[in-house]
Amino acid sequence: MQCAETAGLETLGAASDTHSCIQALRDPEHQARFEHWLCEVNSSDGISLLTALAHMATPTQHSDPAFITTITLLIYQVSYHPLSAVENRLACVILEGLNWGYTQDGSLALSSSLHSEVALLVAEAYQKYLTDKPYSGLISEGIKQVSYLASVLRLGVSPEASFSQWAWQLLLRLKLHGNAQNPKAAWSVPALTSNPPPELTHSPSMHSVIRAVKAGIPIGCYLSIAMTQVGHSLEHFCTDGVGLLKSLIQSRHLRAAVHLLDNILPPTYPLSFYLLNNSQFVSCIQLFLQYDSVCPQGVTQQVTHRVAPLLHWNHLWRQCPAAEQCHSESRGGEFTAQSCWCCSSAGVLGWDFDSAEPVEECVQKLLYQQHKNALGYHGDRGLLSSLVGWIAGNATPSFIEGQSLSAEVWFAWLVLNMEGVFEDDSQLRRCVENELLSDPSISPEQALKKAQQKLKLPVAPSLQRLQVYRWASQALATPPDHPLIPLVWQKFLQFYLRQPGPEYGLAAGGCIGRRFFQASSQTNLLRDLRQRIQEVSDFHHAASQALRVPPPHTPSSDSQGDESPDNPRPPYLTSPQLHTELVRLFGVFAVWLDDETLQKQEVYLPSLPPEYEAHRLAQIMQRQQELWLEYVDQERLQYDEREVLSLWEKVQSEPTFLQAQNPGFTDYTSLSNARERILSNLQKHPVPHPPPELQKQKAPVAEVPSSCLTDSKAAAELVQQDLTILQDQARIAVAREAQQVAMEQELLESLPLLYKNQPEQVTMTLECKGKGGQPCQGPANITVTCERVQRQEAVQTQITSLRRDIKKLQADSMAPPPQSLAQAAVHTENFITSLVNMYKAQKSPAVHHVGVSAFYQVVSYVCEDTLRHPPTRQYLSSCVEILGQVFIQGNAEECGRVLKTILEQRRLCPLISPFFTPNAAPNQLVFLYQDVVTSLHLDTADVIFMLLTKFDLSHWLNDAHPVFSERTRLLELVHGALCVCGRDPEPELLTPFHLFTKHWTWLLRHHFPDHYSDCLRLLMTSSSNQLLSPECWKVTLRVLGCLPPSRQTKSKAEQALSTTDVSGRAAGPPASTYRSPISLSPQQVDETVTWLSDYFLRSRLSKPDLRSFGLYSAWTPYITEVVCFWEHLIGCLISVQLNSCAREPVGSSKTMKALQDLHSKIVKLFKPWIFPLDTEDGGNLKCYPWLETDASTAGCPGWPVHSTHRHAASQIQRSSASRPESLPWRHLHPDTQLMEQLFNVERGSPKSCFLFLGEVLCEVNWVSVLSDFLQTPPTSTSYPTLPDTQKESHTMLVYLLYMLVFLAKEEQLLNKQDSPLLSLLVQSTSLPWHQLDLSSYQGILGYVSTHYPPSVLLTADSSPQLLLKSLRSAAGLHPRPNEVPHREETLKAAAYVCWCVQSLVTLEQGGSISLSSLEAQLETLLEGVVTFNPPETGLEQRHMAFCGLFSDTLALLNGVGVSTGEALAAHVITWLDRKGRGFPILPLLTACSRCLASVRHMTRIMEACITAYFNHADEESVGWGPVLASLQVPELTVDDFLSESQSGGSFLTLYAFILQRLNTEYTAANERRTLALINTWTTQVFPSGPGDEAKLFLWWHKALNLSAEQLQPQSGQTEVSGVVMGLLRLQTRLLQLGEERLNSGLLGAIGLGKRSPVSNRFRVVVRSLAAFLSVQVQSETELRLQPASDLQLSAKAQQTLGMLEAMPSNKQYAELEDSVNKAVQFIRYPGHCLRDGPRLLALLANLLYPELRYLHIIR
């Protein structure tokens, strides 16, 4: 910059190297000029320039101290700006960023004079900006204490506070003291003789410092001690410096005080007694300690804890090991730095310290003395408050708060050992052990009190302060990795496993330790100790598995300070061998602690197993004081010592604001770290590399050898070498693409799995507001299971890995391609260019051969990978295009090879098809076309289309003039291709299909009619098999003029074809889009008609299917085109004949002949299509010309003529436009032959014929037809033989019902307006269908079951319902009161019911009917049976007829499901209950046992039948006789029948069974069995309600009668005893039945059961009967079989009778008082005995149940 202003250009450019520039800058003249120019620049330029120069001043690989000094001293030509200005801040940043530390050799990086000058400048600026400004509050306190505290608390609210903080930080970094400037000589006295420090009062440079000292500014006190003789001479420091130091401490600049002491004290350690005897210095130390332990005003404890730990006093203590080491090396005296600080601490605390003893012993003695003072041995307990600061409860004061210390284990070790010495000296432990051994029942606390009394101790330690508890607690608290943990456990075990017996003159016994752990809290402590041993063992076992990598070198004491942020000290790992030994040692401890034998008795140690380690156990029991130092981690101790030294050195060398951040993790992207980023970049700038050597340039692409242009082998090697590189690159790119797609797909599949809902239990608290003024007792804890989204860590790891892999793959894909790729591409391009140029210059065969070979070789490298890679695809396409245009296109010899290559590799078609020119080889065109056609299928449609566009057939036909055979062969190939496309070409084949049709028309037009016959033959042959599309017909007919030309929009394929046609012509005008049609000559028309007639007739006769079903099914797709073609041909024939007869008169022979000739030709043409043919077997049956499905096609109005042949009359009539159904068919009188024809038509004719005939027959007046049969039949019940006329009428009636069944399912007839079928169905309901015979009716039902769905029963349509009504009428299930039933009526009705039941079962099993519908259908069947009038006249025959019908009806319950069957049975019971009178119930009772498969259904319906029989009987005196005759109990399931009857409440059924059983055998044994059966049933049943309760009276009436019969004088004792016992049981059961509440269950046993369901009158009956039995049967031996004059009542009888008499007093029995009184009167009458029991029951039945008819039998 300077030279640019003053020097010339030649001088400016003369400097050729860096060294000359550096030498020029060091010139004093240049330095002066530089300072001058720097002072003249403006503010903004100065800021920029200073920033750049500051970066230059930052040490990189070369440093220039003079340059740095210049920059530093010139800073305050800019810093005169205010503190808030950018210039001032820039100056602070630059000074802060300079290296004020040491170099690697220990010397200062910058000169000491620069340190001093900067310090004085800072002092001047400090006084300028801060001296006269008042501060108060939090900012003032922050500045007074430490500068970095303000940084932490972010107190930069003002520029002054920020500047104060910066000034103190910078001053503490400056090396101002001589010992700081030369740290290696800091321990020698004197240290600065060569460069003495200035005097404070005599040196002019210290003017600003003196002024600051006088003003009491702390920064002046600091600089006066650090820079002048005050801090470098012990004498000056003692006289002047101590006061300045105290002022600095009082200002709370404690860190500055530590820095000063660090520099001042090392040389004075040998003379430290001067300082220790200086009371002012000791007061400074005391003030320092006081300020260091007290929070500053306005700063809370929490904030102080956030600040980096203030190392002030701790730093000085921690430097003692280093001071000790340096002192011993330099002076060799006995007085050490440790001793100095111990004396200093003792002086501060007022202790007496003997410096002649070892330091540890002195400290222990001091602690011992203070411990005794705390216990009151010297009457002074106030010191404890100043030392420890607390006294907790009854615990003895101690230096350790609580029972143990987990953080300060070393201090705890020292204190506990000291307390142990106190226990031994005071004889306390020995006395306590003696007390415990003397009295086994005494507790440790009592022993301690006795020991205190014996020893007369003023204050004894509390129980928890005893050594055994102290060491136990410390063992629990000591971390498992602490070096002292084995020694702590050793100390504890010495107390726990001690055997003090022989010491006190007692017998040797067990260990005494267990005596100290008897209480619950002490037992828990012992349990925790055992657990702690296991935890420590586990820790060391896990630590022993860790790998310990040895450091590369063992650092010496001189290299301890080599640690740097870039090379942090590695974490320490203990040797695995030591961990293993500790695992074994603590395993031994666990064995000792778990063995209770050691505590109970003396153990012979040599006999113990090896795991006890008896020798160590002996040491423990004998309390040998030798410590097991082999288990102490000595390396860890050395490591900790080095860590302490390293920490202090780090504090000395690095500023505070740099300690708080780790440079290894600086966020260089942050705007606030711009300076660090710039400095880091400057420090990491690499050394510039020398310029590269000049090398000979090599051509990037090799030259193409000339031999490759004529030698195909050499050319192939060249192309192969280059294209292989391109192909490999394409494969790599495609593989990367596929890999990325796969990974992204996997990523997409993994993303939905990242989060998943998983069940989780959440405990929630619910609080209430209390109740009744009482507060809530506490919130309720409710555990709720919910699903919470949780991230799947395994999936997250997978997604992270995938994204990392995708990013790496993308980076690889975006990397530039290799140089070889470009070389190969250019090399191949050069080869092709040279080859083309040489061939164009001279068409040499050799060059042409090389070009053709190169073309196919390049094509061979086109693969899937190269096609997917755009660059490679484009490059290969260009190469193929150039070679193809020059060497392949238009080359007849290469057409076949190019086509073969395309067909073998279809993907090459778009690439090389432009060079396929088949017209260039006209002799090979047909063969090439054949190859293309034979390759046609769906997958190759696009390729075939592209190849077909290369064939210009029009040009080939007109220019090459191919022979007829070649054209015929080509026509057959086009026809084969059209057949391959099929009748309905797939969308993929449409484009080649249109090209084929165009080729077809070209060949047909060329030299017409050369190929007309071939085209017609091929067209007809393929169409008969439906191989061609109708479009082929259309294009052919357009050529022949049968159809107008297509005016529709061309498809893309046709447009492409037209374009190809036009562009493919070498010369001539463009082809017209429309060409005139070809006109057939009359001869050609005549020959065509004749050939077509013969062809279709042969086709009809050649195949059986076509003979039987006609040609329409085979020619359906082409009917429209065939009609159009025939219309054209017939029109041409008519035109020819019309022209020939135009001038002939009407009716002339020529005209008639012409008409006959025309008619014969037309009839011959239509004959195969519309005439029926005879069958092959020669029968009477005809083969109709079309199927019913082809009727619409056959009746197409486009047929040009109508035939009148008699065999085709019906079909021609149906095909015409007339309406045959409009004829007056109502006058038709059909006979049986016509009806038989209807049957034949229904079975084998087309359905249309059947429908037509059926519609005609529906118009017939059937009432008139059946008039003879509808006459009133004779009243005789006999059935005489019908005459022939009546037989024919009966047959007509059967045919009519058949016809209705046939037609009722045809919707086409039913849906017509005013349908005659529907009218006939309505009329038919009144016809006498009941006269049908059984066989005919069964046949009709069989047709209905096979042709009608079962759901016909459920439909609501009128036609099915009318048909069903007729069927029911024919079966006799429709009421006809005035008609005599048919003799087969019952069988027909059974057939109809069975069909209905089977249909309903089918519907139910298929789930097609609802339960309500099924119940309705069942009820309909039952109602039909009820109204049925059987033809039988006898009662038994009529009974069995009804029974059979009911059996068929109830069979429905057997076929349905279980639940449905239950519902249907319940419905039958309900129907029976509501049915009423006049109902044949007894046949239904008989049917139940015959047809029902379920015993449950059987018993319940039987019970309902019997109940209905009695309830709805016509006569009052109905009896049980008909019931017994109708009831049939199934013999195979009697037991199940009786069991179901009991459980289902079928009591009447069981009574009928009893009567039947008694009627079958009249013996006493049978009566006894029946009586026992009744008693058993009575104890097992309970009536469900009032409806069933009276049925039991029948049982008891029969039981009383049978009992009376059995108690005859001639009866044996055994029989009598059984009867009596039965009566007693009956009495007991009657009392139970008469209870108000049920006695079943637990509640019933205590009288709280449910209310009994029986009525009050039933209770009166049973209680009365029970009272009667209690009176007549007083015991097992006392019976009243005869009446007597008096009545002796037992206590039980009196009680029972009393209960009966008391019943009317209850209001619910008040209305029954008369009945109760009559019953009591009957019971108390002495003339009544046991035999009168049935009379009592009859009396009660008459009084209480007069309405029940089934009780008439007992009345």
UniProtKB/TrEMBL annotation:
Tell me the Gene Ontology biological-process terms attached to this UniProt entry.
Answer: autophagosome maturation
UniProt keywords, alphabetically: Autophagy
Epg5-like TPR domain location is 423-633
* Superkingdom assignment: Eukaryota
Gene Ontology CC entries for this record? cytoplasm
> Which residues are in the Epg5-like central TPR repeats domain?
891-1195, 1216-1262
Question: Which InterPro entries did the record assign?
Answer: Autophagy-related_EPG5, TPR_Epg5, TPR_Epg5_mid
Give me the ranges of the annotated region Disordered. 544-574, 1051-1076
Q: Which Pfam families match?
A: TPR_Epg5 (PF26103), TPR_Epg5_2 (PF26573), TPR_Epg5_C (PF26106)
Q: Does this UniProt record's set of keywords contain Disulfide bond?
A: no
Q: Which family does it belong to?
A: Belongs to the EPG5 family.
Protein name, per record: Ectopic P granules protein 5-like protein
